[in-house]
Amino acid sequence: MPPSRMPFCAGIVLSGLDEGSSISIVVLSYEDEKYIKTFSMKMGPGLDTTFQDLIALFPENPLYATLSLPSFLSNEEKKMVVSSARSAGLQISPRDYQRDNIHTVLARLVERGPYDPRNDLLVEIGPSALGARLVCTTVEEGILDFVEEEKDIFTQEAHTSPTEVISLLVDPLLSNLREHPTSAGRDIKGIIIIEPSPTALIDLLADHLKTKFANQPIEIIKSPPNSLARYAAEISLKQHRSKINARQYGCIFNVAALRVGIAKSDGFVVSIIPRNHTLPAIAKTAHFTTSEDDQTTATVKIVFGASPKAQDNLTIAQLQLKGLPPRPKGVPRIKVTVDVEHMGKTRIVVEDVTEQDAATNSVSTELEDINAAVDSITDEYTGETEPKYLEAETSGIDGFTEAENRWVGQGVQGDLPP
What does the record list as coiled-coil region(s) (predicted)? Predict the structure, then answer.
């Protein structure tokens, strides 16, 4: 038995909320890399009693824990699960430690290393429901990013036939991909089968899929219950280790939960700090110009979000540079610098500069925490952000490509409104 003071991290995977649904748990130790405890239990008549019984099985309380929940649950159901887990004594962080089963597996794909946009199909097999999600993702510098909006199908009926799963979930999403290709094209690279509870279907489905795609280079991956719980536990351990290291070295590295950008005069956004970028970041700089002749002011609006349209993002700061000398549009050079220090403290500087980058006029402001704005729009329990700030749909947006390509002068990334 490990020492009583050893810190533990757990991954808890639910297959459903019905009584009798299986729950898989894996416990890892921060201090002992070889320590692993794996066990399972059944969902009881209520969430509160279930988590009370579950926490009694752990070697020490409290624990840092990552909950991985069925992807087909509603937000209200996810809230109930997280609330019951926290009431039982589990340390569940709203933004870092809760995710659905499909995203738990997606996080594991980062270990494959950097890759360009690729299409993957994830199929989740639950005891009372099935789901599939088509995602286009990319990995750069260890950060998984969703390139396209996810497309999914969920059904609340359980099916035991692999042919039913393929006809209900796989074929419709592949047909959709052929009609509406992503930036990665019409082909998929892999099909990942997620099984939160032990059934015989995962092996049968894998065999059927291998036969169906025998002539195509598609990787079929099985993710059984224990491995899914292990993934969740490793996520929890990684988060806990980051906090321990932060305290040990006297600094804390946050993550920009959403993209930080600057609104241009055409209504679109130039990204200055990418989404999921580790903070503190080195100072990021972008150059702009004016949108009108004889413009004597320039408005710089700093926004949080994912949409290319400024109006669909959250404005976190706005500065107005005044006293510009009247010049033709496109001639002024306005330098915007966003400098994020540790703990998220952010300094924003807007300068009117010469060709030699010497500042002739400037205005600046400071934000205490670049992520504070996200907290105000983040759900108390699930950590889910209001959808309008996460939308990144670009289809049907007139002028999007033109706006991104319309640069004025070398190194200038757009123009600013008065």
Answer: none
Number of H helices, E strands in the chain: 10, 20
Given the candidates 3.40.50.10070, 3.40.50.1000, 3.40.50.2000, 3.30.420.40, the CATH classification of the domain at 101-225 is: 3.30.420.40
Contact 98, 73 (CB under 8 A): no
Distance CA 31, CA 35 (A): 9
Q: How far apart are alpha carbons 283 and 340 in whole angstroms? A: 7
- This model's pTM is above 0.70: no
- Cβ-based neighbour number of residue 44 at 10 Å: 17
The pLDDT tens digits along the chain (418 residues) read 344 456 788 899 998 898 999 999 999 887 788 889 998 999 999 999 999 999 888 877 656 788 899 888 887 888 889 889 888 888 775 554 457 888 888 877 767 777 888 899 999 888 888 889 898 888 776 667 777 767 888 887 766 688 988 998 999 999 999 999 988 899 999 999 988 877 778 888 999 999 999 888 888 888 877 888 998 888 888 776 666 554 444 444 456 667 788 999 888 888 888 776 666 666 788 889 999 999 999 999 988 877 788 887 878 888 999 999 999 998 999 999 888 765 456 788 999 998 777 788 889 888 765 655 555 544 444 444 444 554 444 444 444 444 444 433 446 777 899 8
CATH number of 8-99+227-249, picked from 3.40.50, 3.30.420, 1.10.10, 3.30.470? 3.30.420
The answer to whether 101-225 and 259-416 have equal CATH topology is no
Burial degree of 74 (CB within 10 A; 0-12, 13-18, 19+)? exposed
What are the sequence ranges of the domains in the chain?
8-99+227-249, 101-225, 259-416
* Residue indicated by tokens 């123009």: 415
Does the domain made of 259-416 have the CATH classification 2.60.34.10?
A: yes
Could you give the CA distance from residue 52 to residue 88 in angstroms, rounded to a whole number?
5
Query: By the 8 A CB rule, do 282 and 308 touch?
Result: no
The helix or strand, by DSSP H or E, that contains position 103, with its residue range, turns out to be helix 101-108
